[in-house]
Amino acid sequence: MTAYIGFVDNTDMLAHYKMLEKIRDVCQAEGWTILRYDTSVANRELIMMAPGLSGTEQIFCGVYCYQEASLDYYNLAVATMKGFVADNSFSTQPGISPVLGVPAHNTRIDYWISVNGQRLNVAMKVGTPVYESFGIGKFFPFAAPSQYPQPLFAAGMLSSASATRYSETTHSMPWKGNRSNLRMHFNDGTWKTPLTTPWQNTTMANSSRPAETTYALYPVMLYDATNMYGVLDGIYHITGFNNSVENTLTIGGKNYVVIQDVSRTGFGDYIAMELS
Q1: What is the rounded distance in angstroms from the CA atom of residue 93 to the CA atom of residue 45?
Q2: Integer angstrom CA distances of residue 34 from 43, 160, 215, 238
Q3: Is 18 helix (H, G, I), strand (E, B) or coil?
């Protein structure tokens, strides 16, 4: 796993276009195959194939830009797919998840990108500022490959590629679960909305202080009323007590950055994204 931290701006293109280019570059550097990178259209788009942690898998992910200058929004949209057909449009790729919007910016975007062989996690600081995050790819299933061959997920900030500016106050990060901007793939081919730990337990999610003097990371597990399906890779709940966005911490030799839910600062409004 490699982390990339920096910013893009509008020096030579709109910042959300530059962000798409940055995602392409870092995923390619980490061994992903670029299947489509089309900058000839206004809604520039990128489709990639990740090799999995084994190096022998085929995990298809996509990102595209959409914007409207008169409404002052410049966004990304993300999805995970079950295959790739070169002649198909982005939205008609085989088994594609719902396409989920992520508010971005046209001038400057500060980013934290964490990519490995099976998934891409991204956090961005935009605008006033607020913090947006998304993830696409594969999670760790609680089942054998023969039982659960495609444990895929897609997580964005919006439930569709809607005309939503970063300053809109009701949109929220997907990791809290039970919301349509987090989807997981089921064996019947559908993409459903899971619950997540610990946010469906209000007491645990809003824990006011870390255990003793050490901040604890809580894995984000995906479940419903029937089953516990798996755990997200590289995304963790962390308490907001005496904590701040962009804090960094090292636990067990691994590095993390703290990201908040847009502009929210409650105890349950933070994640820790693994950087190494």
Answers
A1: 13
A2: 17, 24, 38, 34
A3: helix
Whether residue 50 contacts residue 153, with contact meaning beta carbons closer than 8 Å, is answered with: no
Looking at residue 11, its amino acid is: T
Domain range holding 41? 2-193
DSSP letters for 55-78: S---EEEEEEEEEEGGGTEEEEEE
The angle formed by the CA atoms of residues 8, 259 and 114, to the nearest 5 degrees, is 60
Tens of pLDDT, residue by residue over 20-30, are: 999 999 999 99
Number of alpha helices (DSSP H) and beta strands (DSSP E) in the chain: 2, 19
State the average pLDDT over residues 94-112.
Answer: 98
Q: Which 3 state secondary structure label does DSSP give 173? A: coil
The total of structural domains in the chain comes to 1
Residues 20, 41: Cα–Cα separation, whole Å: 13
pLDDT of residue 119 exceeding 70:
yes
Cβ burial of 187 (10 Å; 0-12, 13-18, 19+) is exposed
Residue 223 lies in a domain: no
